[in-house]
């Protein structure tokens, strides 16, 4: 079962990929990841490592900060100070 955070991140990746007109296969080729793995990321079925996040950001012509910032802005992440 997908976690809300990984599902939200997957939606961001899919949205960014589609905005660039890339297929999952094309994004996979740019990141040296399989189309199947890209699909798993987009469905929130896997929690990408920092290396995968870095590759996705580069392939999507953005930064890791931008991807994580969008994720954080769109989710209700508990504040650890509370």
TrEMBL record:
The keyword DNA-binding applies. It comes from the Bacteria. Keywords: DNA-binding. GO terms for cellular component: cytosol. SUPFAM superfamilies: lambda repressor-like DNA-binding domains. One of its GO terms (molecular function) is DNA binding. Transmembrane segments: none annotated. InterPro entries: Cro/C1-type_HTH, Lambda_DNA-bd_dom_sf, TransReg_Diox_bact_type. Residues 13-67 form the HTH cro/C1-type domain. This is HTH cro/C1-type domain-containing protein. It comes from Gemmata massiliana.
């Amino acid at each position: 079962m997908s976690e809300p955070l990984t599902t939200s991140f997957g939606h961001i990746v899919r949205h960014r990929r589609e905005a660039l007109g890339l297929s999952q296969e094309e994004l996979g080729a740019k990141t040296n990841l399989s189309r199947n793995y890209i699909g798993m990321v987009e469905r929130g079925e896997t929690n990408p490592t920092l290396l995968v996040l870095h590759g996705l950001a580069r392939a999507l012509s953005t930064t890791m900060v931008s991807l994580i910032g969008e994720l954080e802005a769109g989710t209700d992440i508990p504040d650890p100070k509370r």
